[in-house]
Amino acid sequence: MNKQPETIEQLRQSFAYGSRSNLNFKFIKGLSDDEFGAFLEELLAAIAATTDDGNADRVIDAAYRWQLESYVGHLGDPADFPHRHDDTPLASLGKPLSECTVALLTSSGHFVEGDDPRPFDVEDMTQAEAEARIGEFLSAAPSISAVPVDTPPSQLRVRHGGYPIASVAADHQVALPLEHMTALANDGVIGGLAPTAYSFVGATSQVRLRKKNAPEWAEQLRDDGVDAVLLVPV
Amino acid sequence: MSVGHVQRAIESIGIPTVGVYVRSFGHIPELMGVARAAITKHPMGRPLGAPGDSERQRSVVLAALSLLERDEQAIVELPDPWRAGAGAAPT
Known about the structure:
heterodimer, A: 234 residues, alpha/beta, five-stranded mixed β-sheet, two-stranded antiparallel sheet, globular, B: 91 residues, three-stranded parallel β-sheet, 3 strands, 33% helix
């Protein structure tokens, strides 16, 4: 029996957790078939030009512009945005930043070697398995990992099924700027870096996060005595 | 969206926050009612800059921290275009 030819839609979807999964390009799933064609056309033209002059900026730029088109260009009516809020909670520092202890919190999926959050009780879950189980992550409550800010970089681990982790794995400060914040504390820009940073896997149940975990984590930060928080979503 | 929930929860109990969002998620701070956000022209997965680009990472962190001194909602797009780095953390 002849295999059914793959449709353009199936091809697009294969880049997001499918047979050709590449989380850098999962946005392709959100493009229309026509847009996908236009993206490929631009990409090929950019590669041809880059072949001659070696300037890859136009290739990177084409990928970036279509990523924006997929995420931002397709937003539709803001009223339909899930988890929209019309109010804005606002707090004030009350003292100069140079006297404030600032905490760091990111949704990067970092943890310290030997302190694996063990999602779904799996020992040493791989990045590939985290990507394969993305649906389960998205319906489960998150857990948060405490990262002492003096953790040697060699002991940092990262695993997150929702984004391409290679850049963060190559340099944790792409999302978890422990050394930058320490240096800014030493330079007196901030009063100090809170001794514990926090990281969680942002691909999680949004309802559970909003109702239960986020308020608990906020209380933890208050117990930690921090004056302000820098957050880095990925 | 995840960090938007966390940011709102922290701000709600009286602790000022600032988030660094890539432009693909740059609509989230306003739609979710987040107090302060710095938005970078970086691709998804590289919020503060490229691996090894310590200069950019530090400048984004500094720009974000400076927003903490604002007492009104502050959502600011950082102007610097993406640039590649060394590909790995400096040793």
